[in-house]
Design brief:
mainly alpha
Length: about 475
Amino acid sequence: MAGLMYRKVISSEPEVGQTHLKRTLSWWHLLALGVGAIVGTGIYTLVGIGAGLAGPGVILSFIIAGAVCCCAALAYAEVATMIPASGSAYTYSYVVIGESVAWVVGWSLILEYSLVVSAVAVGWSGYAAGFLASLGMPLPAAILAGPAAGGLVNLPAVIIVFVVAGLLALGTKESATVNAILVVVKIVALLVFVVAAVPAFNVAHFHPFLPNGFASHTVDGTPSGVMAAAAIIFFAFYGFDAISTAAEEAKNPERDLPIGIIGSMIVCTAIYVGVAATAVGSMSYTLYAGSSEPLALILRTLGHPSAAVLIGAAAVVALPTVILAFLFGQSRIFFVMARDGLLPSGLAKVNARTGTPVRITILTAVVVATLAGVTPLAKIAALANAGTLLAFIAVATCMLILRRREPNARRVFRTPLAWIVGPLAILGCLYLFYSLPHQTQGFFLIWNLIGLVCYALWRAVGSRRAA
């Protein structure tokens, strides 16, 4: 119980000897970081997977997943400005609830961020292969998939992870600026898709709207329908939580964090609704369900090969923004946990020249590149969602606890209707977790059991903090 009761205190004055990150990011860096993290694999690749589960009802899946994320984003905005420190949900849980809960949340964030980077790298590989094939340079199938998918290793996925890690190691501001430029490229490409596909829009493609029902199961018990798709597509909406990991590097966190978190959700929701509706209305979902590059496939089928090449090129160039945002977030989670003594303190080293945690960035790249090289996209995405759902529940809970414990505390951003939004975020996340495949739920529980064993061993040998 000692670990559970101990709560971290965030001081305005740096602790003596503690390593800190440089404040180099402005609000537009954070907004671009959020948009770069959110608009990516979800709309470029998971549209096909979601359509396979829900048919045209995948639009409802996007709306439901987006609504839950909006509630969570409001909670994040309030808590992040009250606790403007790196570490995201892990740090908030440490400050508000206690060390043991913080460990579980941090352990789940490790799962989330690592697997998101891996999943996006796999998605990028699919678009890169399709783009090169369209130029007459097909890659061997053996290096485009892991053993589970009949290949040897997904080599392009491994390579892109290390390229992005190298960029992050060069400097936070430099990588954020490159990210902002690539985000513009990505949004322009999605606008091209909408303009090219809209002329083929046909309401007949929306019938039957719910071919697999709202919340059903297949013969073998696998979840299907709108909610099953929402539980996977949820992966397409989160990413704003990566913004909160940059709190220690924001020039004015109290102003910049809400702009980044709320602003990115508004921009991305509008983009998603428009692109998803266009995709469903322009062609029967059965033709692109399960495709790793559904948008490019739709354009090729509709007779727009040049636009399809552009979409593929944009995905190849811009999907790494998602990898950058989440690899950035993962390295900061590792960094803060190491600085707190919950991971080896040697990982909490900041390079004197670049001001970045180079050592932990490279270590993270090794882990996620290995996963990307051998694991299928759908399984990665579902397991990553489980970790995110727990983190969102933790942040919404922290917001409600602080509202009760410190009702008069200064709040730069106040969540509207907090006692409605907070419970909706928690209940929505719980239902989405329930809608995940049973295998995914089982793997997530096993992951956290392993984490609790690691925490118990750490507590047994003691920490750098005196009891």
